[in-house]
Amino acid sequence: xxxxxxxxxxxxAELNYQRNFVRIQRIDxxxxxxxxxxxxxxxxxxxxxxVQLKADVVPSWKRNSPV
Length: 67
Fold this sequence. Notes:
Layout lengths: L8 H4 L13 E2 L2 E2 L14 H19 L3
Antiparallel strand pairs: 1-2
């Protein structure tokens, strides 16, 4: 938050999960995942969103997705 406080990502964002089997993109043989979004920078910084994604969301995806 602008004042430095932290809140769960779900309180400042709407997360929508979609599966798309049209194309599987790989980098060096490893499947990739793309995340897109619009950030209201007066409410949260892009850096804070990335930190929270890496800390909270990505581990869950890794646990629930086949390698």
